[in-house]
Amino acid sequence: MSLVKGRYLDSWKEIAAYLGRDARTCRNWEQDLGLPVHRLEGAEKSRVFAYTGEIDAWRELKGRLPESGDTRASSGGGAKGRTTPATVTMHRSARAWLIAGLAAAPLLAAFATVVFLGHLRPSAEPPVGRFTIDVEPGHWLDGTRSPRDFERPLSPAMAISHDGRFIVYSAIEGPPGPTAAPQLFLRRLDRAEAAPIAGTAGGVNPFLSPDDEWVGFWAGGRLKKIPVAGGVATDLCGALRIFGASWGSGGILFSDEEFAGLSWVSEAGGKPEVLTRPDPEREEYSHRLPSWLPGGQSALFTVTEHLYDRAPSTALLRRDSGGWRVLLEDAADARYVPTGHIVFMRRGTLMAVRFDPEREAVSGQAVPLVNDIIQGFCLSSRGHTCAGQFSVSETGTLVYAAGGVVPDEKNSLEWVDLKGRAEPVTDHKAAYVSARLSPDGRRIAYSTLGSRNQIFVYDRDRGTHTPLTIDGVAIFPLWSPDGEQVLYSLWGVRELLYRLPLDRSSGPELLAQDQDSFSSWSPDGHTVAIVGFRPDTLFDIGMMDVRSGEITPYLDSPATEIYPDFSPNGRWIAYASDESGQREIYVRAFPGPGSKQMISISGGSQPLWARDGKRLYYRDRDHVWAVDVQTEGKLRAGPPRELFDATAYGWGFPIRSYDLSMDGRRFLMVREEKRAPAPVTELALVENWFEEVRRLART
Q1: 142-156, 172-186, 386-400, 516-530: lowest mean pLDDT where?
Q2: Which residues, 6+ apart, have CB-to-CB distance to 445 below 8 Å?
Q3: By percentage, how much of the chain surpasses pLDDT 90?
Q4: 658 near 435, Cβ under 8 Å?
Q5: pTM over 0.85
Q6: Which CATH number fits domain 129-407+677-696: 3.40.50.11060, 2.120.10.30, 2.60.40.1220, 3.40.50.150?
């Protein structure tokens, strides 16, 4: 259904001017004749608005309008001239009945008027209207897209004005080229097309000021604002990224990193003030997606427990004390609506629960309102925002993008020979991320990311897939040299490193914390190379003594050092570093000291030794490469040569995602599902949505 409501009139003055009457007459017409006037939910009674299209329809139905001050309905006809009543003679009883009838006439007339006007007056609960709005032709709704997520926006991409008159959204020309950039667009609901907002190139995550005069947005590492009509953007503050923002009285609440808390900046700009920091003791990984409550003294926000949390919590922040408490479990991207509810996302469904703003407390059970709304769950730390693609006006209009949660990938495990020829390892498809072959070659340990973030073991002889872990986000399995144990990482508030017997004769044993991942086990079984992250030196390589659990630094320069891999004789470590300005493969002696030697010449990652130690393989984004090496005595390396195109195969970080067969002739790789783009090119709009909220969320 097309959306044609005519021009928006935002006061009694504008309504009266449109009708050519004074404001008092229009108020009388609303009361007596059903003039279609709306009021903002929870606002002052004098704050009204109307649509010219609705008024025109009312006038057409009503016929000739009464004069000013006269609210009597027109009869549509009447006597053409005056008549003189006949003179008659009556008995007393007849006169009595006549007097009684005349006395009752006003009551009967009033009753008839009520019945008549009841047909003219709109119902107390106007019908819910559903419409679609096209995104700017040739454009896609934008906000942290990726091919793995069908090119759908995963961070907030739209905002509807408080009075429901217009929508601001971010869009990019599609399919986007390498230089394409998003921009904000303004769609007024009384017009058929959107218009770009000048001065918002690169802008995403729009949010509106309380008076709807300004729109805030993020672009190029900065938080900015600009008049809704466009112009010159005002820089507010730096923001590395953006994970939601809300504009309240005098300032903006926002989150700028996947593991950060909430910050506040004045609407005039300046240095941000940190309001919250995630508390690891409370299992808090990040605070994001803030939304002010009425009054501007409290705000709702989302609390995640780990990088890929699909059941985060909603908390309430008190601005005066700076404290916060969890309000709802399994609830993300919550906002208050004037019906007295909090609406929030739960795995692609918009839910509602009753909320008392005075007590700042919820009551009753949450109920589903709208299914299949896009929610930001994905495999990218930037894209896994938990944000819902929806916005609600104070007047009861809902706008959203349909699409729900991206389904798990259907990836494949494949054997790929040195010329790139592939064959399946198993017919089983899953959201594989990385895979490692056991020392005897009979089993494969692999991890998945999606609705299940666990480690499984595939028995090649029996054809069975057995879960090894059941909790948290378990990733990057590493076999012990004897094949009896598996090391793995558990990502959460802290990165924890565990050891687990394959036969599950005992539970997981914690070996280290605040380290990222296990990478390679020395052939003698005494040392494990690990990758850890520190804010000052970023990713570094350390060595863990298996017997004592002690970790000593191996490489901790300001550069990023990742993907360590022991040579088969245990004398060398291959790794990737960006110390030259781009990531390259290096080899250096273990345990050292000794100089390093660069192996790649035009970029490289994920080194992997041949099982005889005579060759070193590595990957760049597009290809697999091989370098012949001599590891006995002094290290010698030949020139790199390209083996095959590997763009179809998964990419691990900071641990390699592929392995080598026992005979050294094939790679074990994860072929990623190729997904066709399914960008968002239209929005759904629901008018008078609050009637639906009240009906569905009565508890």
Answers
A1: 142-156
A2: 435, 436, 438, 455, 456, 457, 458, 468, 477, 478, 479, 486
A3: 65
A4: yes
A5: no
A6: 2.120.10.30
